[in-house]
Amino acid sequence: MTYRAPVADIAFTLKHGAGLSPTLAQNGALAADDVDAILEEAGKFATEVIAPLNTVGDKHGTPLKDGNITMPPGWKDAYRSWSAAGWNAVSLPDAFGGQALPHALNAACIEMWNSASMAFGIGPVLTMGAAEALAAYGSDELKRTYLGKLVSGEWMGTMQLTEPQAGSDVGALRTKAERAGDGSYRITGQKIFITYGEHDLTDNIIHFVLARLPDAPAGNKGISLFLVPKFLVNGDGSLGARNDLRAHSIEHKLGIHGSPTCTMVYGDKDGAVGYLVGEENRGLACMFTMMNLARLAVGLQGVGIAERATQQALAYARERRQGRAIGAKDGSSAIIEHPDVKRMLMTMRALTRAARAICYATAGAIDMSHGGGDQAKAADARAALLTPVAKAFSTDIGIEVASMGVQVHGGMGFIEKTGAAQHLRDSRIAAIYEGTNGIQALDLAMRKVPLEGGAVVRAYIGELRNTVKAVQANNDPALGATGARLGEAVDSLDRATAWLLGQVNEAPQAALAGATPYLRLFGTAAGGCMLADEALAALRVSAGEPAARVAVARFFAENIAVQASGLERAVTESADSVNTADAALAG
Amino acid sequence: MTYRAPVADIAFTLKHGAGLSPTLAQNGALAADDVDAILEEAGKFATEVIAPLNTVGDKHGTPLKDGNITMPPGWKDAYRSWSAAGWNAVSLPDAFGGQALPHALNAACIEMWNSASMAFGIGPVLTMGAAEALAAYGSDELKRTYLGKLVSGEWMGTMQLTEPQAGSDVGALRTKAERAGDGSYRITGQKIFITYGEHDLTDNIIHFVLARLPDAPAGNKGISLFLVPKFLVNGDGSLGARNDLRAHSIEHKLGIHGSPTCTMVYGDKDGAVGYLVGEENRGLACMFTMMNLARLAVGLQGVGIAERATQQALAYARERRQGRAIGAKDGSSAIIEHPDVKRMLMTMRALTRAARAICYATAGAIDMSHGGGDQAKAADARAALLTPVAKAFSTDIGIEVASMGVQVHGGMGFIEKTGAAQHLRDSRIAAIYEGTNGIQALDLAMRKVPLEGGAVVRAYIGELRNTVKAVQANNDPALGATGARLGEAVDSLDRATAWLLGQVNEAPQAALAGATPYLRLFGTAAGGCMLADEALAALRVSAGEPAARVAVARFFAENIAVQASGLERAVTESADSVNTADAALAG
């Protein structure tokens, strides 16, 4: 069973959810039909070209020999067709060859690349982020030399923060940059866990490296960002000498074996030639441009792996026959007929679609933030609020759904050749990289919820309440208790938010203890409301399979949103049980 | 970081929980000091001999060549020392060399073997189950020839149910047994997913194979159990000819690579020689003797892997320094100081200990069922009620805790050499084999809860209420809201149980839809109360680290037991959302 891009489903969520509907309403240049055509083509590429490479990548891995990495069979051709078709450039600025299409549309594409193969999809995500950062902060000269090729994907980019002592704590990094006197810098040091740090997909690789100048202040305020090409580039744009950097080793990982994870060494000789991006000591701001997009993209990996795991489990459950379901006539039933299996499959589907809606809405907010005025400002704050939820909720459910996918397969799920286990292995990294989900929860609780004194989150909760009212006003009996359960979930989120706003400054230790259940509560209430919005939209326009969307929204509300009250308590009443637990963790 | 058996912790739970306290109160022959001495020795063996073999097994696997499997380096010596020391015989009948010690004590040992290495621990578990079945159902002649060596572990046993079309639905099996005319049978057919089906740890392997006689009725009522030795045994007990069976292939699995999972072929020539165990067509009853013990043992695998993952995460969190915790003076803090990490570690610890208490209590009920009279009958029903919870709750949390263990390690968790990922890979099977956790949930909801018209489960809930009252009567402020939250959880379980009893016959489809959240609710309420019992016992006797036990009980009650109301709703209010979901699963 391989992946088939759920183009119609994605298109509906995109056009009727918060992802693309505001853009479509505003932007005469992009028609709904164009969106369908682009998604159709992307889905075709993901399904036909990338998806078959997924197990190939898992089996072959990315062997490193003499500093060179050979990517799995077929990957180079696939990548080159992919970039030649313009898929790297979808939402990148048009000044350097990008198509400047909405991020929300690109988000849908990113989901599909990553459903097809997470290990394949993560490389381009970093290249896109690098291009965004360079476009925003790079000098004209750097842009002239590098931006066009990063936009097209002819060269890939990397994002290099982590060092052994500097993981979640980026400020602790030690890689050095010294001024060379000619405007360039010389980089020495070591970076670890560098995704796509070396490979043979492209002729050059453009590394974006955080490093510290000799006179830099300590911590986060002394970090600068450098563009460090694998091969130096001559004045005419041709490739010059090899730069003083190399992949020293690769990691043997639980999953995404097709994605090379490298330890990079800079400065075996005189230091690698690097060029400053943005201002000295202001590198973290540049890196955050990359990182926010990368966080959303990693959230989309969670959606993608969940979608693929759901498809595979569904296909198996339709074929596999065991036992006789109640009411079935003769012989054995397909296991999808058994209520317990149905519950698993519906949980998978509902969580996947909720996470998708959250991620697309985040991308939509980014799109709306690019205009001007108060609306853009509000959209920017909305994107800031939703980004940690999109990243952490989606990747958490990615793992849960992939694990449930193994379970649906029974014993076959544990056998590697079935493929369900690979999804679980692959899914596990997304909750860790680009800021662990714990870091996302802290970001949400301590920085995003307090934005504008809480006005940003309160406005968002107000919108969720409108959804609840709309559901309650609808008389479709198929919605069951959707309105009531979502209403309770939003109430829980509202109270937990008020509590959090009271703690952030007064009792930060308490706020920190509740951060992770708060993020889950947020994703649960928001995701449930978004699914209900989709169901109402489908009923309204009599398209997008209304019965199916109603069933998913109802299942989420009655089975998943009901966790809200327990999560609320874990946020608001459990600080003591966390912070006084040292006795139980000693010894 | 390797495993260190938590002997003191285990001993406390065993002696002060339902596992061993009734036996100790009754049985003058076994003193509490003996228990400590045995646990100490078992812990030493698990820690020093088995635990170091765990990564060896993961790396080497169990290659099959010409029908023979070579076990990983060091495994044969370790197994032989282990069985020579008497560990296989702990709770087996004394007539054939067993020590006839309580199952609860053996349960603690099984946990430790499996913490040390799940792949190592699963083999003996099956041998013990085979010995129990043979002791209960075998003819005197079969016992004379095989039982002593199965009790000592000199020969290992296997348990062979599964065929490609017969997984959860055992009744669909097709392996044939024909009467040979001399009292023996000839077996032909194929079995899949056979754990330890072939290996070089012992000179003979005794297979317990379910097969169907030519004139057998269809389904479950036509299954017979046969003892089928790898090597036939001569009259003098020496090994004779090779039997007509072989391992045809082994599976490449997600985890437990040190445990050979074989496809077995019977009857290349005239059929393998087999001997009937019990009566013809009554094999399933015999197999259930093995299976119930195996289910508990697999639950203990869940506890074991959770314990090991928790130990490893704790060790890492104490060493790894990132960021500065609130209130810390200078430099970076150990990540265990960060509330969010503390929450993860406490969740791991609390879930692990709750599952342990449930498994030990199940074993204790088995012990008490071996006496006579009403008490034994009640204990037998209690064991029947708790077994599916012990199996499914413990293995579900095994996966969750192992996954959280990866998360605590951050990027290092995804790197195989760290070892945290192996625990996640290993843990995944336990929710599948010996009856998937979905099957356990159905067993609980449809067969165990209705026992004696619900009197068995009601009596159990009554005991949980007594715990709640005892907690509420205690004034220790460190218990926080433990009493209140557990009271609510037990209320939820009570209402969900009443609902379930009303549905089982009237609306089985509804009961089936709620089975999985019901089992989780049951484990949550029961586990929370058992942790509270332990905390109260520790306070009472001023031993067993009262402060730590109170902290764990409180954390569980305030952070995990609070999920009860959401689970209750998913049981009692969600049948329609599950059973009308077909539209959302089509296409």
Structure characterization notes:
Two copies of one chain form a homodimer. With 587 residues, chain A is an alpha+beta fold. Among the domains of chain A are: 7-152, Acyl-CoA dehydrogenase/oxidase, N-terminal domain (Butyryl-Coa Dehydrogenase, subunit A, domain 1, Orthogonal Bundle); 157-285, Butyryl-CoA Dehydrogenase, subunit A, domain 2, CATH 2.40.110; 452-578. Chain A is 56% helix and 11% strand. In chain A, the strands form three sheets. In chain A, strands 3, 4, 5, 6, 7, 10, 11 and 12 form an eight-stranded mixed sheet that branches. In chain A, strands 1-2 form a two-stranded antiparallel sheet. A two-stranded antiparallel sheet of chain A has the order 8-9. In chain A, strand 8 (231-233) and strand 9 (239-242) form a beta hairpin. In chain A, helix 6 packs antiparallel against helix 7, helix 7 packs antiparallel against helix 9 and helix 11 (373-408) packs across helix 12 (420-427). The relative contact order of chain A is 0.10.
Please render the helix and strand layout as text:
The structure is a homodimer of 587-residue chains.
Chain A: H1 7-16, H2 21-26, H3 32-50, H4 53-60, E1 64-65, E2 68-69, H5 75-84, H6 103-116, H7 118-137, H8 140-152, E3 156-160, E4 176-179, E5 185-195, E6 205-211, E7 224-229, E8 231-233, E9 239-242, E10 245-250, E11 261-266, E12 272-277, H9 283-319, H10 339-368, H11 373-408, H12 420-427, H13 437-448, H14 455-473, H15 482-503, H16 508-513, H17 515-541, H18 546-560, H19 564-572, H20 575-579, H21 582-585
Parallel strand pairs in A: 3-6
Antiparallel strand pairs in A: 1-2, 4-5, 5-11, 5-12, 6-7, 7-12, 8-9, 10-11
